[in-house]
Each structure stands twice: as structure tokens, then as C-alpha cells.
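Fold this sequence, please.
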Amino acid sequence: MNDVQRMKELAGRLKEAAKAYYAQDREIMSNYEYDRLYDELEELERKTGVVLAGSPTVSVGYEAVDELPKERHESPMLSLGKTKNREELAEWLKDRSGLLSWKLDGLTIVLTYRDGQLLKAVTRGNGEVGEVITPNARTFVNLPLQIPFAGELVLRGEAVITYADFARINGEIEDVDARYKNPRNLCSGSVRQLDSRITAERSVRFFAFSLVSAKDVDFHNSRKRQFLFLREQGFETVEYRMVTAQNVVETVDWFESRIAQNPVPSDGLVLTYEDIAYGESLGTTAKFPRSSIAFKWADELAKTTLRDVEWSASRTGLINPVAIFDPVELEGTTVSRASVHNVSIVRQLKLGIGDKITVYKANMIIPQIAENLTQSGSLQIPDVCPVCGGPARITRENDTETLVCVNPDCDAKKLKSFSLFVSRDAFGIDGLSEATLEKFLAKGFLHTYADLFHLDRHREEIVEMDGFGEKSYQNLVNSVEKARTIPLAKLIYSLGIPNIGLANAKMICREYQNDLKRMLEAPAQELAAIDGVGPVIAGAFRTFFDQEKNREALEALLKEVILQKESFSQNGLPLSGKSFVITGSLNHFENRSAMKEAIEKLGGKVTGSVTGKTACLINNDSQSTSAKNKKARELGVEVVTEEEFIERFLKREDGKENAD
């Protein structure tokens, strides 16, 4: 393989890893491996003088996802050049002074204030176009919504979740396999929620690291004065120290000594020239500004021997590999285990029992395998589930291979099924956490959903269980009895039919006026013709109820419940017969569910995809290039903002009509 071919291979692997990390919040390659391949690519580009189109060394970030409105940044957000050599920082500074600060590991946000009020918040996205997350930013626990400065202020910073809040949130998730892998992934998902209430629950914090512009303010050419100005406005800034070439190495050591006590995840440091004009006069490369440089910690590596790989089954059916190796000291602690994430990484590392491996702590916190020195590739991927002993198969999704249990009766999967059944959008039974369900399953109390309504058969055993007692048992029984009365749509949803959420179940029930017999006998083609259903959902519904065991489970369940009477008459309702699609973030409604409920009360339908029957697409970013906006334009469906929709379809003040 010649140099250019190798460069193409490296670019492809790095772009795939970046897409997974930045756009999909999953990890297919360790940070150590990514940096190693990136450095190799850079070296080959220097050697050959060739830089291929789309190379990760000249492109920035990855495309923002479509769920939120997009907006182009006024000035591109470039990545930073990096080094792991402390002395190189001194050479970079020369006779200049600089600010050395933490490089936080979260999600970069651009904030704009006008007239003292927060106007908008946009994620970094791909560096040129980001996602508008203003309602979510308003919930950040330490972000000022109003500031003294009345002019226009633009600044950049990092949204993060502290280690303490990460541990708290993970501690509330009883299923170990469902917990978040690291604070960065949790933060990214939290900031980009469509429901800002979820963001608020996650205790996201914001630390400013750069002032972009502040109209008519003279900072006397000083970055430090910009930081002080931001603090005066009420912002928390990244911790920083003033440095020169003489003390920068010593200051890096000072930061390193504080990593263990630092409450916020960091993956290095950033050095910026104190002299603003000088830094800006240096310009930029295709990817990097020359006014700043990133320092990444040289990972402490330890050599050890791989002794085993445990395969841990989760409640979703995924079977995850965990490496077990001879204990080693890393960053002051003893480690002997590291997640390998999935089959793709097992194969990439060419693991085998007895292999000599090197391990490190990502961000000096999370144990990872850096390299397999032996690369025997002899590890056997199991073909049975460690929980139920049933068949396990390798599946491929988004170019990532994972091991899954295909036994539908696996205990891990049963837990998931019962957890959905008792959830808020289904039967809403209080007092049945996953931990409690797991105990009930292990003791044989639960075999079918109907068994939940006969827990009295096990009263004596339940009362004696840890965490229970007579009062807890009675509260649980009362909650179960209350849950017996349920709308048919929630009952359908509770069965866990693949691809069918509560909204889909409501559409089907409304179409058949809650006539369960007609629904169960309806052919797939008829179901697919329902607005918002389509062939995939129709096929899933038909396949599920064509299985005798599922019919029997439903019949047993129907003997235990009381179906709520519902009226489907839409005569006189102003939105009767109209179908709508909602996309992007909302400003007036709390979330999409609230807007959907308002539409349904007036007889309308909310579907997930734009068709020729859609009355209009509701999107506050009407100029968006998202797939839904493109589809609407192709079909001639009008795109309206939330305010336009409210004005035309929902307002009833002063005797106004509800719809055109």
C-alpha cells in the first residue's frame, strides 16, 4: 500500500469515528487510537505534500443532526492545533505572554445577548452550521439570562456535566447496562434534547472560554480583560493562569496536579496569546487559528496481560464485552477492567486471551485499551447469551458490529418488556422499579403481563422482601388496581410492539374507533393507508398479532383490565380531517407533546412524516434544508412557523375561527 492509499484509508476511518462520536453520541474507536491515526495522517500529508479533499486535518467537525433548527455561525468555529509536548508550548509563546486554561470535554455553545437578554444559543455543529438550542440553554444551572451589558455580546463556551452530577444521574438508573458511558455523551444528549425539561433535570453548566465580540467595549488588547469582563456579566469562565515561556511548563504541571480534584471533565489545556491583535494578525490555517494551541495530556500507559473478556448482557439484548487484565497502577489508582464497547472494537484490536496489551485512562478517568501488542486475534465471539444460554448473533448497524441475544424469552429482555409495560405512557404503575421487577422475575412471580394483577398470590413473600413491608406492599397493590382502567391505545403501546409508539397506537385506535376486533383483523395494506402509519408500522402491527402467543397474552390481559370509554366524534371540531407534522424546537409550547395534544383536542392529527395529505409542516426554521422541509417543498406542502400556526389554526379569542 503506497502513502496516498494509506492516507485514504486513514481519512475514511477517522471520518467514520468522528461521525459516530459527534453526530451519534457513540464510540467506535478509543481517543488514543483516534489520535494515533490522526498523527499518522498528518505526518503522511507533510511527507507527501498531498492533502486529500475531505481530509479530517482540513475539515472541521461533523454535520449537525436534523432534529433541531440549524443556523450558520457568523464566523466559522475552527478546531485547534494540538501538541503533547510541554516544551513546544514555550517555543510557541516565544517572548509573548498567554492564558493557559482547561480544555473542557463537553459540547461547545455560541451565545448571543442583545439588550441585556439571552437572544440565542447555537451548538458548534460542524463549525459552520450549528443547532439552535436556546430553550435548553435557558435551563443551564449557572447561565445568566440577563446581564448588565446592553450592547450585543457574542461569546463561546462549553456546556458540561460535572462528575458529581454524572454519578447522580447514573445512580438513578437501576439497570447498569442502561447507564451513560461518560459525562461528555450525557451532556451532548442533554443539550440537544427536544424537550427542555429533560435538559433542566440534567444540571448542565456553562463555562465561557472565548469572547467573540462586545460592541463598543475597549479591552485594551487584552484577553485577560475579556475574561474579567465576562465574569462581571455573571458568567463562569474556565479556570486560567497567565503564563510566559519561562513558567508555562511549570503551570502545565500545576494543572495536571489538579485533575483528580477538578469537578468538570477536561481532555487537556488551551494556550492563547494575551495580545489580541497579535493573535489575530497571525491568521488561520485551513482548519486551525494560529492564535491558540491545544495541549493534550500524554496518556500514562501501562503494559499488562489480557486474562479474560466478560460478555455482559443488557436488558436491550445487547451483549457488551468487558476486558479483564492483570491489575496495573494508572493515574494513582489500580485498574483491572475496561469496557471494549462492541464487537467492532474487539476485532479492531485483534484481541486474544493472554495478549500483551497497553491500557490508559481516557481524560485520566476512564480505563481503555490503547493497543494490543500481540494481536493474536484468537478471541472467540460467543454464540450464546450469558444470561439465558439462548443463541447470540452479531448484527451490523451504522457500520458497527454488536452482539445481541435473539432469544425473545431471555430474562434480560423480559425485564425490558415489563419495564415498558409499567411505564408512565403505558399502565403507569408506581412502585415497580426495574430493580423490583428484576426481583419479582427472579422469584418467579411474573411470567405474563396478567401476573402483575395477581401479586396478592405472593403477598407473604413480598412483605418479607428487602425494601418492602406491609405498607409498601399495599401501596403497590393499590397502584396496580388503579392502573386496571386504561385507554386502548395505552394498552396497545404497553405490549411493546416493535416500531409502535404511543402516538402510532392512538392513530390506529382512532381510525377504528377503538373497535379492537376490527383492528386485529385489519390487513397490513389497510393499516398502512392510515395517515401517519405507513407500511413499516402496519407490518409490525400485523406480524405481532399474527403470532398466537401474542394474541393469547392480549386475551389474558383483557380479562384483567377495564377499557376507558372514549368519544371519537369530531363533528364541529375545527381541525377535523387535517393532518400536521411538527419538527424542530418550539418556543411557545413546552414541547412537541403539548402542541400535539392541543391539535388533537381540536380534532386534528399529528404524524411523523410529510405526505400529500399534510395540511402544513410546523417548523420555526422555515428555511431549513432538513429532509422534512425538502419533502414539504417537493409535495407543495406549506411550511409555517409556530406563531403562524397558532394565529391561523389555534386562536379562538374574540370569536375568531380556529382554522382558515
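The first helix runs from residue 3 to 23. The radius of gyration is 28 Å.
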